[in-house]
C-alpha cells in the first residue's frame, strides 16, 4: 500500500521527465487553434476557422441568462439541428478574447453542449455552428453582467 503523497510525487516526477524529454503526448494540443483563441473580434475568429461571414439561423440555439449576477461563472447552452456540423463555438463579443469555447462535432456526437464562461462586461454572446462545407450559422443574445468576471 503506497501512501497517496508518494504516488502524487512519483506521478509528478514522471510527467516532468516526459515533458523535459519531449515525450509528453502532443495530441492534447493537436486541436488547439491559438490564432482563433487569441482573436479579439468575431470576424477574426471566423477567419481563423476558415469560415465565411456567419448567417443568422433559427436552427442554432443559445440558452443564456438575461442578467448574469456574477460574470465569473455565466452558464451557456448551445445546440443545433443543422446537418453536417463539424464545430460549434461560443463567442463573447466584448471579452479580451472573443472565443470562449469550441466543440468538435462528429457523427457520434450530438451537437448540444453546456458550459460556463467568464464575461468581463455586458455583451452580445454568439453561438456559431460551422458546417463541413465551411458555412457558418449563428444566433446571438445580449447578456448583462452586474459583476465582471475578467478582472472587473
From TrEMBL:
A Pfam family matched in the record: SoxY
Domain called Ig-like SoxY: residue spans: 47-150
Keywords linked to the UniProt accession: Signal
InterPro entries: SoxY, SoxY_sf, Sulphur_oxidation_SoxY, TAT_signal
Signal sequence bounds: 1-30
UniProt xrefs under PROSITE patterns: TAT
Stated name of the protein: Thiosulfate oxidation carrier protein SoxY
Species for this entry: Caenimonas terrae
